[in-house]
Amino acid sequence: MFRTAELNRTLARDDYERQVAVLREELLGLQSELQRADFPVVVVFAGVDAAGKSETVNKLNEWLDTRWLTVRAFDRPSDEELERPFYWRFWRELAPRGRIGLYLSAWYSQPILDYVYGTAAAERLDEHLERIQNFERALADDGALVLKFWMHLSKDAQKKRLKKLENDPLQAWRVTARDWEHWRLYERFIAAAERTLLRTGTSATPWKIVEGWDERYRAVSVGVILRDAIRRRLQERRMLKAVTDGVTDDTLQLMVERSMLPGQPTVLSALDLGRTIDRDVYREQLLQQQGRLNQLQRKARARGVTTLLVFEGWDAAGKGGAIRRVTAAIDARDYQVVQIAKPSDEELAHHYLWRFWRQLSRAGRMTIFDRSWYGRVLVERVEGFAAPHEWRRAYAEINDFEDHLIEHGIVLLKFWLHVSPEEQLRRFEERRTIPYKAWKLTEEDWRNRDRWADYELAVNDMVEHTSTRRAPWVLVESNDKNHARIKVLKTLCDRLEKAVKNGGNDKPNGKTK
Amino acid sequence: MFRTAELNRTLARDDYERQVAVLREELLGLQSELQRADFPVVVVFAGVDAAGKSETVNKLNEWLDTRWLTVRAFDRPSDEELERPFYWRFWRELAPRGRIGLYLSAWYSQPILDYVYGTAAAERLDEHLERIQNFERALADDGALVLKFWMHLSKDAQKKRLKKLENDPLQAWRVTARDWEHWRLYERFIAAAERTLLRTGTSATPWKIVEGWDERYRAVSVGVILRDAIRRRLQERRMLKAVTDGVTDDTLQLMVERSMLPGQPTVLSALDLGRTIDRDVYREQLLQQQGRLNQLQRKARARGVTTLLVFEGWDAAGKGGAIRRVTAAIDARDYQVVQIAKPSDEELAHHYLWRFWRQLSRAGRMTIFDRSWYGRVLVERVEGFAAPHEWRRAYAEINDFEDHLIEHGIVLLKFWLHVSPEEQLRRFEERRTIPYKAWKLTEEDWRNRDRWADYELAVNDMVEHTSTRRAPWVLVESNDKNHARIKVLKTLCDRLEKAVKNGGNDKPNGKTK
């Protein structure tokens, strides 16, 4: 979930200055338009210590017109506040319609910290998160534009930043013993954070994860996301008005969704595609891992351990080949491969998840999805088959669906097979010239290729929203097919071995139904 | 919450036959229109045993065209089902777009029973309810019309029905030892039911509580609610289409919301307005209760026990008089009376609950709201100041708001002062003739009077949705002002006495913050 914010994204100074000059002007313009609008903008900042939450708020404070801005940071509750229900402090500071409110250490702070320090159990965290859901939904239902920024740093990066701050005489005061204590509790903090983001991120109240390492990058990212969100909302209001007024105007088209700055690395571009494996080593390892898989799947079958594999990836990235290397090792009665293409009429008449629910296998079997429900946030998003509100809410729907699987004890593995555009082109050309491969290449493949950047963005967002500790994405470097196949087999075997030992997946709460 | 379904509503046979003849035709017509629509109808039945769930489903099965109908009852999971995640059985039985699905003992059954039998803790129930929320929201987001009927009987009524069934040789098989066991667990069952309905009833997936005593009444009620919901949804789809097509048509106006059959008793009509109190007894009791209140409020102040009173009621029902009898007993520094009239500009610029949050007092004080947040579901609903989707979702927002208060330990009491239309008219006339009372009577009072039936319906719905075990509505028979005042004072004192003893309200979970 946070991997997309551990890519060392930075912004050079001159680039920064050029962008900020434009951005400030745009933000001021939107702010003045916002004054006549009928909704407030509620912006919440949370995240890892030293990831620049307050610095970013300071920057926005500098860029925006402070007359129409509310900035609030919440410390320990005052006596006045303690004598009222906890949310009183937040309600009274809410920005009115037409204004922007920036909130630091607000309603997310205490629930997460209570959990991290162990003063509150997981159930208590969940209760808090339900409160938050209700609160934010009430605001959003009332029209508020709710935006939440999670400023992120990896554990290493956090350490480096804390050290750096300590070494700077002007900034050293920022680092306290509490910060180092938090750093030691990093894993627990991230676990709470993931749970929090999963439960409170909705399409009406989305989280935006921002990498906090580079101060220029993070400030511009937040500024751009804020600008786009306000602009889009104002545009939607104008469109709605135009529609009800009967006006149609092409200039009212909604702009394309961009969740990150152009030119920045994605989870895919950060992969090392140079990884290869020697032909001889490959042959040996293939036999070895397939033998292992065969043994493991027999045990899994006997113990009722069900496995579900998802394969997604670029056209010609080698999904089919990888799948065949898996199935070759398994008794045909123990697996099924489900090819996901265009839905049938019957499937179209149901919720888009219905076709996947119906494919769930009995206990002890393996189901392999060649493409999957992730089509909703990949092809359907990029090609416009799903409207923005549909694919945006799909992240939560998919997480919920996978939660059903995991809670039932199913071993779930998701592979993204990644190749470079150059390698894909090479394979396309090869297909074109080899007769028995030519059928595989369609017009659509060439068309999809033109949208590489859009797909890459969609994959980045998909990993950000749906790679969780319980159901992580495995990104497979696939320029070398042999390396890809071995990585898939080995990951699968390792996971299955653990599951067979424990009699199911390693659900953190160990519940069984 | 269930009081509105314990009013012995019945339907005479000839009335029933007349209504059913029309209703069947309407339902068949809608069903045929539905076939071309792009959404399914998902109808869930749950409720008290012997309240006629399956009988009602049988009736619908008789009335509707079964070719376009899916009826499913879920028993113990099969082996096939046990080997998949629990919701698999529900997903695979979902009705496709254009069809109606009726579901018995479906996703609500097991969570509630597990809790009632004590095999699962409250946290487990909450987890199940969150699953349900996500499931139903996914369906609703996808366009499904989701309707949930809670068939209700009071504990006495349930006993009578079980006895009656046992005595009927043709029906005796329906009653099992399990039914009697459930009857003995009635209170626990109702507690779970209230929690379930509160958490899973949203404006997109509403609960409809239907009194299950009379088989004719309940069948027609369900049929009418179903008819109106489908008709409204089809109308909304047509309107949306008309708007996007640029067509405007007055016939597309949404019809008025009716949640119960006309002519049936409401919670208000079931009150005994003949209750009076002698003048001498009144004087004595007034002094006595005021003295008691004075003592109790001193203690409450000392112990930090905060009280919040809500007064709602008909115009001229005596809210002001009752409030003055309360405040007369209390130190002026310990209370404030908040008059709720038209919101200020500043208040209008915020969420409608903001103005109430800001009035919450410090610990140990009493705040009296003369009219309140309930205006949202009363005057704003009836006068159309709030759109249907706004006041419908307000029930959940209000319950959430009051939950904040109760969890904080605040003693919350809600009074509805009820007078008959005749008594109101008498008081209006009196006001008109007595000079020092004339200012109280406005044009608006006369106008509201014309909408008596709409208001009564709104009050009935309000009690149904917001009278909970932790924050019940106190319905006060107020044709006799003296009786009303004593009832208010006594209820308040009793409640405060308990709270002062326990150091807060009697929150069932005993949490403190």
Give a verbal description of the structure.
Chains A, B: One of its GO terms (biological process) is polyphosphate metabolic process. Chains A, B: This is Polyphosphate:AMP phosphotransferase. Chains A, B: Keywords: Transferase. Two copies of one chain form a homodimer. In chain A, the strands form two sheets. In chain A, strands 2-3-1-4-5 form a five-stranded parallel sheet, with helices on both faces. Chain A has a five-stranded parallel sheet with strand order 7-8-6-9-10, sandwiched between helices. Chain A is globular. The longest helix of chain A is centred in the middle third of the chain and has 31 residues, at 215-245. The first copy, chain A, is built from 21 helices and ten strands. Chain A has helices at 13-34, 53-63, 79-82, 88-91, 109-116, 122-141, 155-167, 177-184, 186-200, 215-245, 279-303, 319-327, 345-348, 354-357, 379-382, 388-407, 421-433, 435-438, 443-450, 452-466, 481-502; strands spanning 41-47, 69-73, 100-104, 145-152, 207-211, 307-313, 335-339, 366-370, 411-418, 473-477. Helix content of chain A is 51%, strand content 12%. In chain A, helix 2 (53-63) packs across helix 10 (215-245), helix 6 (122-141) runs parallel beside helix 9 and helix 12 (319-327) crosses helix 21. Chain A folds into two domains: 3-233, 3-Layer(aba) Sandwich (Rossmann fold), CATH 3.40.50; 279-502, 3-Layer(aba) Sandwich (Rossmann fold), CATH 3.40.50.300. Chain A is of the alpha/beta class and 513 residues long. Chains A and B meet through helix 6 and helix 16 of A and helix 6 and helix 16 of B.
